[in-house]
Amino acid sequence: MAQINTKRKGTRFETKVKQELESKGYLCMRQSASRFPDIVAIRDGVAFVVECKTNKYLSKDEKLKGTEIFNQYCDFLIAYPVKEGRCVVIEYMNLNNEKIKI
C-alpha cells in the first residue's frame, strides 16, 4: 500500500514540475513508467532533462546516469518540492556536483 502512495506522490509531483516549466514557456514531455529522466524540456532550441525527487536525493545509479547525460547530451536538472510558498525548486547539476537554482 505504501508503494502505491509513493508512486502516486511522485506522479503528482512530476506533473506539477511539468506544469511549472510549461508556464515558463518550455515544451515538456513527461516519461511514464518511472523511466529516467522524468521530464525532457525544450525552449528556444535548448533542451534539458529533469529528474523529479520528492525526497531530494539521487541514488548512486541516478547520479551516474545524470552525469552521463550531462557529459554527452544536455543539461541535467533535479526538481524537488519545498514548503516555503514555492512548490518546486529546480537545480542544475554540473560535473562538480554543484547545484545552482534556476
In short:
It contains two helices and six strands.
Features:
34% helix, 29% strand, alpha+beta, 102 residues, 2 helices, six-stranded mixed beta sheet, single chain
Can you walk me through this structure?
The chain is of the alpha+beta class and 102 residues long. The chain is built from two helices and six strands. It has helices at 2-23, 60-72; strands spanning 27-30, 39-43, 46-52, 75-80, 89-93, 99-101. It has a six-stranded mixed sheet. β2 (39-43) and β3 (46-52) form a beta hairpin. The radius of gyration is 13 Å and the shape is globular.
Helices and strands in order:
Layout: H1 2-23, E1 27-30, E2 39-43, E3 46-52, H2 60-72, E4 75-80, E5 89-93, E6 99-101
Parallel strand pairs: 3-4
Antiparallel strand pairs: 1-2, 2-3, 4-5, 5-6
Which of globular, elongated, flat, extended, rod-shaped describes the shape?
A: globular
By helix and strand content, what is the structural category? alpha+beta
Spatial extent as radius of gyration: 13 Å
Subunit organisation of the chains: single chain
Number of helices: 2
Number of strands: 6
Q: What profile does the largest beta sheet have?
A: 6 strands, mixed
- Main-sheet strand order equals 1-2-3-4-5-6
Mean pLDDT: 79
Q: Percent helix among the residues?
A: 25-40%
- Unreliably modeled segments: none
User: Strand portion, in percent?
Assistant: 25-35%
Order of helices and strands: HEEEHEEE
Distance between the termini: 35 Å
